[in-house]
Amino acid sequence: MSARFLVTTPIPDPGLPLLEEAGTVTVLPAPPDHARLTQLCASGDYDVVLTQLRDRVDAELLAAAKLRGVSNYAVGVNNIDVAAATGRGILVGNTPGVLTDATADVALALILATARRVVEADRMVRQGRFTGWEPQLLLGHDVTGAVLGLAGFGRIARATARRALAFGMTVLFAPRPPAHREVTEEELGEFAGRVAQVSWEDLVARSDYLSLHVPLTVSTHHLVDTDVLARMKPSAVLINTARGPVVDETALVTALRNGTIAAAGLDVYEHEPALAAGLAELDNTVLLPHIGSATVPVRAEMARLAALNAIAIAAGRTPPHLVNPEALR
Ligand code: GLV
Ligand code: GLV
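Above: inputs. Below: predicted complex with glyoxylic acid.
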């Protein structure tokens, strides 16, 4: 029987043409709710489901599912209960690597936008409040010489470090907060002697810009909470291009309001797409709608990888990007 694919949301080319060459493809016209997705996955009509971050693939869905695999159109897989999938021999694929530079670009965009108050300034011009050059108009901060603290030192953190070094920032990192794991000089590679690793506590205390690059797991949930915010510099800026629940967003709103920290640049939210009460009213925030990987070539490449993962899984082969190799046993 030819492979049968369920695609929960239309994806860019070449995703669908690749899947269509390999089998029959059902594309849902609108994102399904959890009950509908569970029903479709349990129907036995599909070999692989190609999911989005907003599709919650939890233990309940997986217990009912008659699937060989789930191919996630993202690098992060926090929307999927990977342990439950592994327990049922369901393979999970993701799209690493291709979105690293694009996401690091957005981290830099948020650093520059918060430092130089770009969004506030744009608003002023559009609202007709720009009345001419002024010595004290919208003064911001220099990023050159400022300390960038990277929480995490994976691909995206390293790509962010590379950019920040070019801007003359001092780069510190804490490898796997909150736990500590020393990265060897050899693992540092091109960064040896150019970035310094510190404890999570030091990173929090010393950063002018604290940028989050950790996956969302049980140990990184609310990594940045009231206590951490209180230990940051009052002049510090929090940057989040990782996952919303890594930050206690209600605590962040309080901290931004009270001047506990100076500003925040966010691409992700704790209860996406909802925002914590008060967040959108604050001038010292730059808020983006989860566009870290949103470039034309990157989204096409993600579509290609997600399709290749799905095709391999349906054919009983190991997909190019398998999150849970343990499920093969
Ligand atoms: C996007 O957030 C991703 O995980 O790919
Ligand atoms: C994600 O791809 C990361 O490793 O940072």
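The pocket of glyoxylic acid (ligand 2) is lined by residues 75, 96, 100, 154-157, 213 (CB under 6 Å).
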